[in-house]
Task: structure prediction
Amino acid sequence: MGLLNIALALAGVVSAVGADAQVFSPSPIVAPAPVAAAALQRWTAGDVRCGDLAIPAAQLRRPYSALLWGETKPTSQTYRFRIDADGRPLSITHVGSSWAPGAEDLAPSLAASRLDIAGAQGACEVTYTADAVPLAEAPVGDLISYSLAPLNGKLPEAGWDRIRPAGADCARAPRPRWLVAVSPDYARLPAAPGARDWTLLSYDLDAQGRPKRIAKMSGNGNAALDRAATEALSQSRQTEGPRRGCLRPYVRAATRLAAPESPGPETLRPKDATCPTDGGWERKPVLTYPRNWRRRSIEGWAIVTFDVAPWGETGNAKAVAS
Result:
């Protein structure tokens, strides 16, 4: 049995099978089934419980929303974890075998949170509950936030209709093109590990393509980003003026959240292991970092045990620590 630090990912495969068929009589014309309206799925965390200790849910980072189609039902997901002395959730484990659509960011958002407690805690638990809001009723800020980091598809036009200012004609063809697109110096702006900041500015274009009447439409509260974005947009230039109701998002990506210290493969190496410690790969594994954790710039590690057959094939792989 051997050990390997490895990140694992699953890839789904979809296959389709078709067959030729003879048609001997005209078929009736059937109208296509109407496409179900999309809804925005939002997750709300309950209080964190660590034994008799209750920690307010307000200390948890909000998970990213997802899109749902068709009939939706209330759903929940529960996670167990421990909290280190710095308030960082670790050893996060999903409870139960059922998995809800749109829950991809629950564990990463929990890992990016910091809890204000005195001392480390074990055996903690939190439950997230989802609700689905039609795009016509969802808060505009939630729609904007989703459009900047879509989990499962682009925001439908019904969502953009809610976001665009009344009387906007900036999306009319031919759309304005950037002649000069100035960006803020993002590296100098404050940011939080594992959490992105964003702001959406609205503006009009004059006949020379200069942004005018710049205003913050929505954001998540990073005042330094708001100021830098406004200054950058004021220095930018476009074609196709004059226009009204133009929109420009600015996103400060999450900064790196370093992985906690690893115990090292040798500390978990079985006593009866016969695998060499120097590798000896004929074909190394293809490592793919989980997309949902990469989105928040959260680093991690996993220690995996496995067996090797006499002909070199690997099997019996198990993650023994992560």
